[in-house]
């Protein structure tokens, strides 16, 4: 059965505790992805956060080693997470970021899709959009897209594209999973009206949907682990009592059907969510076997009706407090 495209996200390339610390390891991963039929890759100039640019550099070296023509690469303009994004998307900043990305990726012919990583609240929208329009015109990317941009801002951008006959963004990247579904009502209709696809990330809600947190399993190697720099933030984002209680009920329910919450989360996003065949699911992994397992879970097909009901029940239990999260 058809499902959204699987896209491998390279945010973990060069990140502490991941297996992808050098070009050899990254090359092995790309060979495995190619064998699995996954040929779309997503990167960004700020990956990994502790060493921006290293993910693109490793990806460029790995692609060269395995024959990179088999892969379509998307990337994002550099954003400085030390501030609110102001100045990230000036014409000069976009040009400099793209030039550096193409060099690191060893891809002078340009990338597939170039994304805004997040909104720039200071630079006029006209300058931001015209900068991406120019990157497409210069052949540095086939198209452009946005990530983490509020729907109201995207709507203004699309209006400006119509007014100035600028190239419109073709896709939106955003979180989407069993407990983060605000995009279904607040964003997806806008995207569909403008023929934009949605490429989802955080299918496991940063690891919360594995069930490890509510089952007191070992959190080592996850974003909730004490050794992870995002641990405190993750626990704050996913620590609500209603969410914890609903997740316990859901996890027990899927276990009764002989399934894991992880498997249900992946199969739900692929076959029972609002995503269509033209949309994408960005997966990530810190180990090779994890990558193979995730692709395998997605390709197991749709879930039994009773398990889909459990998934809907989970959302019903938390949408009052999480309905605005996108």
From TrEMBL:
<feature type="domain" description="NADP-dependent oxidoreductase">
    <location>
        <begin position="6"/>
        <end position="313"/>
    </location>
</feature>
<dbReference type="InterPro" id="IPR050523">
    <property type="entry name" value="AKR_Detox_Biosynth"/>
</dbReference>
<dbReference type="InterPro" id="IPR036812">
    <property type="entry name" value="NAD(P)_OxRdtase_dom_sf"/>
</dbReference>
<protein>
    <submittedName>
        <fullName>Aldehyde reductase</fullName>
    </submittedName>
</protein>
<dbReference type="InterPro" id="IPR023210">
    <property type="entry name" value="NADP_OxRdtase_dom"/>
</dbReference>
<dbReference type="Pfam" id="PF00248">
    <property type="entry name" value="Aldo_ket_red"/>
</dbReference>
<keyword id="KW-0560">Oxidoreductase</keyword>
């Amino acid at each position: 059965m058809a499902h959204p495209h699987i896209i491998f996200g390279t945010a973990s390339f060069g990140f502490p505790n991941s297996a992808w610390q050098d070009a050899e390891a990254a090359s092995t991963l790309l060979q495995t992805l190619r064998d699995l039929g996954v040929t779309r890759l997503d990167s960004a100039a700020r990956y990994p956060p502790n060493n921006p640019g290293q993910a693109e550099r490793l990806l460029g070296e790995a692609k060269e080693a395995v024959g990179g023509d088999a892969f379509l690469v998307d990337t994002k303009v550099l954003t400085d997470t030390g501030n609110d994004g102001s100045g990230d998307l000036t014409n000069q900043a976009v040009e400099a970021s793209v030039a550096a990305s193409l060099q690191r990726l060893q891809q002078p012919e340009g990338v597939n899709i170039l994304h805004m990583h997040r909104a720039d609240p200071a630079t006029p929208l006209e300058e931001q959009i015209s900068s991406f329009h120019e990157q497409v015109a210069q052949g540095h990317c086939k198209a452009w897209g946005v990530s983490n941009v509020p729907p109201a801002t995207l709507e203004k951008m699309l209006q400006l594209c119509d007014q100035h006959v600028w190239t419109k963004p073709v896709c939106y990247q955003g979180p989407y999973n069993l407990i983060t579904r605000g995009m279904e009502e607040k964003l997806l209709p806008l995207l569909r009206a403008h023929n934009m696809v949605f490429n989802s990330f955080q299918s496991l809600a940063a690891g919360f949907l594995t069930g490890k947190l509510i089952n007191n399993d070992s959190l080592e190697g996850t974003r909730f682990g004490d050794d992870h720099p995002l641990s405190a933030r993750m626990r704050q984002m996913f620590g609500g009592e209603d969410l914890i209680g609903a997740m316990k009920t859901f996890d027990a329910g899927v276990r009764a059907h002989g399934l894991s919450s992880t498997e249900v989360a992946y199969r739900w996003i692929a076959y029972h969510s609002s995503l269509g065949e033209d949309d994408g699911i960005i997966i990530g992994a810190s180990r090779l076997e994890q990558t193979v397992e995730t692709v395998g879970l997605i390709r197991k097909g749709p879930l039994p009706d009773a398990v889909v009901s459990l998934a809907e029940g989970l959302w019903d239990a938390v949408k009052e407090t999480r309905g605005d999260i996108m």
